[in-house]
Amino acid sequence: MATQNVVVSESKSGIIAMAVSNSAVFTPSAQKPPTAPGYISISRKKLLKNLDINGGHRINAWVDSMRASSPTHLKSVPSLSADERNSWIMQHPSALDMFEQIIEASRGKQIVMFLDYDGTLSPIVEDPDRAFMSSKMRRTVRKVAKCFPTAIVSGRCRDKVYSFVKLAELYYAGSHGMDIKGPTKGFSKYKKDKQSVLFQPASEFLPLIDEVYKQLVENTKSVPGAKVENNRFCVSVHFRCVDEQKWSELAQRVRSVLKEYPQLRLTQGRKVLEIRPTIKWDKGKALEFLLESLGFGNCNNVFPVYIGDDRTDEDAFKMLRERGQGFGILVSKFPKDTNASYSLQEPAEVMDFLRRLVDWKQMHPRM
User: Fold this and answer.
1) Residue 62 neighbours by CB under 8 Å, 6+ apart
2) Catalytic: 97?
3) Per-residue model confidence as pLDDT tens digits over 92-139
4) What is the pTM of this model?
5) Which of 15, 109, 143, 283 is a plausible cystine mate for 316, CB 3.0–4.6 Å?
6) Is residue 349 a contact partner of residue 100, using CB atoms and an 8 Å limit?
7) How far is CA 320 from the centre of its chain?
8) β-pairing, 110-115 with 150-153?
């Protein structure tokens, strides 16, 4: 990674604002309007061509993609032969089965933990406002944070994720890493200045996001089960409770709003359509920023571990592969294309893996 100059200033609230320059990842333009370098340039003509609101085949293709990544029934999952499934498992073995090998690879290095929330620390539920983590999981994550620097990286609004997790000692990267804040003052032993890190590379988009959120609420209210969530720096349109026969209508309504906003892009997650600013920023970039903030940006003795279940987590898995450090763990019961090195099937296995990490660290405090 390119060398970075970091300018730090402290506000009255105790939050540290960090401006980073001379970097291939964090450019001075990161806080400028959408036309500045560092943003994805998408012409209005090209955007309309890609969305093709009036083209039925485009809508159908998008719905097929929604269906493929969000199966409602086991029969919706592409069938694999025993050889194909075994091949996938060999390429992405269980992190629990490979625990000793993982520990051996991290020996002599500082482990840094990155955790997605929905589907990783909490089960996927029909109502996104009720995606609560268990008390056992919360206690486990708290123990992990005492052993290693730990961050929650989620597509959710940072404040919403914090209201679920309620642990002041963690780093939180909400809105796919576009809203990053460190531990509450005095709660982290890894930040020597005991202050919080605040980084919001898409702050210029806040008024636009609010405007689009209101339009999406209005345009989708006639689709039963659709839920629009304002995650501050992005908007999520949940279709988990929408009848599959209505997915095409929902996609049409979402796209009819976005055709007026070339500054925003549409991405897809697990039973959710997500609208984000067109900046070169994702969970992988957030991972790099947090490593920089912790002093591990150009360090060979760091071992980042990222655990997540969604498409958006692939950016972080890919970043770890490119860095040649640490590894990613995909949480999924079914084989799927991924840049992760290992796999776990569900949040219960995530908790087992985290507990084993804590037990190992407590037995080897100097390692």
Assistant:
1) 251, 255
2) no
3) 999 999 999 999 999 999 999 999 999 999 998 888 889 999 999 999
4) 0.78
5) 283
6) no
7) 14
8) parallel
